[in-house]
Each structure stands twice: as structure tokens, then as C-alpha cells.
């Protein structure tokens, strides 16, 4: 990837349909200044698209064959994106104070999101009784179940569908590569600036824009760190830093990712934040 030299650079403002990108913040919370800064001035990608972009090899156009974590990470991104858009939440705590992973995922709004993957997952969640928890939904959407009656929950071809969406947005292109025994459709970067800006966003959140405590991070930045960790692509996002910066960023990321999810969720009144911490708890099982 191109060496990152302009850390303050932002993409041109794109027109965003606020109805399609309705955040949970509009139903009771507020954006931080940092979140507004990034989300209003850059091409708006879903969390799943951002994670796939981080995992793709720039020129080859495919994810590492050795990364067996990105599939569940992308499904975690679907769950978090639905929560941020105000479609789902975790059942309220009771006097027994259930842990995040023991609380079921409930539907707040059935309104379509305009995103095929999100709407497909929302349909499954809505139709399932009794409700399931976050960890169960990540496994079911990934297809990690031995119960043949639950295989219909598996979301297929997620990477390819996300890649096609990124092609439509001008971030990736489509090529065919020959691997001796078979041909494979690949999606190399057509414009490296989008991935560079995404990497800068992660790096700055842990360096210049470091908030000091996990709950003070902008919501989508926190979600991105959690999902990059769950998908095993976070370290690659820090690889262009100097040794000193890398050590600092790694230390701070560990402060976030090794914190106790239930404790951190208890410090926030946001339903979306609870889901983010639940996804982290699920990735640490």
C-alpha cells in the first residue's frame, strides 16, 4: 500500500442519504466531533465494507487464505451496523444483571436499511423465536452450526457481495486471476485513497486523536477497532507506523480490546455501545 504521509487529508464530501444511514444516535444520543468530522467528509462505507477493505491485498484483490477470522468479523459488523442504525438492541438488564452474551438481541425497528446484507440479517433476527444472543447470531450468520434446521441462517457470499458494493462505489475493480487449477474473480483497489484514509482513521484514533478511555472513542471508531481485532486485520493497519508510534498505538489498542466488555458497556447508556462490547466479548470466547 502507498506510504501514508498526509495524515490530515480528507476525501471530498459525498452526498449522503440520512434516511438510509440513520444512526442510533438520532434516537437519543449524539455524535462526537470526531465522528462527525470523518463521517461527513468521506465516502460513507458500512463497517463490513471497511473491514473487507482492510483485509484485502491491495494489488491481488483477495483476503489472505490464512485468515480464518474475517468471516465472523464481517458478521459481527452486520450486527453492530444494525445496532448503530437503530434496528436492534440487547434485551434490558434485570435485577440479576445478565452478562452481555446472555442478553438476547431484540428488534427495535423493522424499517429497511437500504442495504441488502443488513436487511437479510434483520429479517432473520425478526423471525427467530425465542431470540438469540450476539455470539449465537455471529455463529449462525457465519454458518457455524451443526443443526441442519438452522443452516438457513447462514449468509452466503458475503465477501463477494461486499466487494461488488465497493466496486459500485469506485473503491475496487474486478479482475480474473489464474491459480493453476482454477480461475478466481478478484477485486484489487482501483483507488488507494479510500483505504489510506481508513488506515489513517484507525491510526489517528490511537495517536493524535486518542481519547484516553475506551468509552470516549467515537462510536464508529470503537466499532472499527473491535471488528478489526475480531477479523485479525488490525495489526496490518498499524504496519506503516514508525516503531515508536506502533508501540504506542498497540499499547492503546490493547487498553481498549483487553478491557472488560461488561464493565465498559455499563459506563454507557447507548444500546449501540452495548452491542459493540457484546461483539468484542463474543470474539474473545
TrEMBL record:
Q: Where in the cell is it found?
A: Golgi apparatus, Golgi stack membrane; Golgi apparatus, trans-Golgi network membrane
Which Pfam families does the annotation name?
GPP34
Example GO molecular function:
phosphatidylinositol-4-phosphate binding
List, alphabetically, the Gene3D superfamilies matched: yeast vps74-n-term truncation variant domain like
Question: How is it placed in the membrane, per its record?
Answer: Peripheral membrane protein
Protein's GO biological process: Golgi organization; Golgi to plasma membrane protein transport; Golgi vesicle budding; retrograde vesicle-mediated transport, Golgi to endoplasmic reticulum
Quick one: where's region Disordered? 1-37
Please tell me one Gene Ontology term that the record gives under cellular component.
Golgi membrane
Q: What is its main location?
A: Golgi
Matching InterPro entries: GPP34-like, GPP34-like_sf
Family the entry assigns = Belongs to the GOLPH3/VPS74 family.
Name of the protein in question: Golgi phosphoprotein 3-like
Amino acid at each position: 500500500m502507498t506510504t501514508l504521509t498526509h495524515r490530515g487529508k480528507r476525501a471530498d464530501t459525498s452526498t449522503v442519504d440520512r434516511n438510509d444511514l440513520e444512526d442510533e444516535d438520532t434516537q437519543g444520543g449524539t455524535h462526537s466531533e470526531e465522528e462527525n468530522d470523518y463521517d461527513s467528509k468521506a465516502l460513507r462505507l458500512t463497517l463490513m465494507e471497511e473491514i473487507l477493505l482492510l483485509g484485502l491485498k491491495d494489488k491481488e484483490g483477495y483476503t489472505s487464505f490464512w485468515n480464518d477470522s474475517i468471516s465472523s468479523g464481517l458478521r459481527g459488523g452486520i450486527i453492530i451496523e444494525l445496532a448503530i442504525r437503530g434496528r436492534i438492541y440487547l434485551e434490558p438488564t434485570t435485577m440479576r444483571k445478565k452478562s452481555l452474551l446472555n442478553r438476547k438481541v431484540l428488534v427495535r425497528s423493522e424499517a429497511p436499511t437500504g442495504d441488502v446484507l443488513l436487511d437479510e440479517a434483520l429479517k432473520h433476527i425478526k423471525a427467530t423465536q425465542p431470540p438469540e444472543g450476539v455470539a449465537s447470531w455471529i455463529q449462525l450468520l457465519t454458518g457455524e452450526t451443526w443443526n441442519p434446521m438452522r443452516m438457513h441462517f447462514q449468509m452466503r457470499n458475503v465477501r463477494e457481495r461486499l466487494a461488488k458494493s465497493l466496486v459500485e462505489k469506485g473503491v475496487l475493480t474486478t479482475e480474473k486471476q489464474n491459480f493453476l487449477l482454477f480461475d478466481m474473480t478478484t477485486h484489487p483497489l482501483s483507488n488507494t485513497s479510500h483505504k489510506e484514509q481508513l488506515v489513517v482513521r484507525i491510526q489517528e484514533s490511537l495517536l493524535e486523536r486518542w481519547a484516553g478511555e475506551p468509552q470516549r472513542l467515537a462510536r464508529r471508531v470503537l466499532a472499527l477497532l473491535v471488528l478489526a481485532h475480531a477479523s485479525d486485520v488490525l495489526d496490518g493497519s498499524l504496519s506503516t507506523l514508525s516503531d515508536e508510534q506502533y508501540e504506542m498505538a498497540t499499547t492503546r489498542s490493547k487498553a481498549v480490546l483487553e478491557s472488560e466488555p461488561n464493565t465498559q458497556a455499563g459506563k454507557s447508556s447507548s444500546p449501540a455501545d452495548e452491542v459493540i462490547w457484546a461483539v468484542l466479548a463474543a470474539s474473545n470466547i
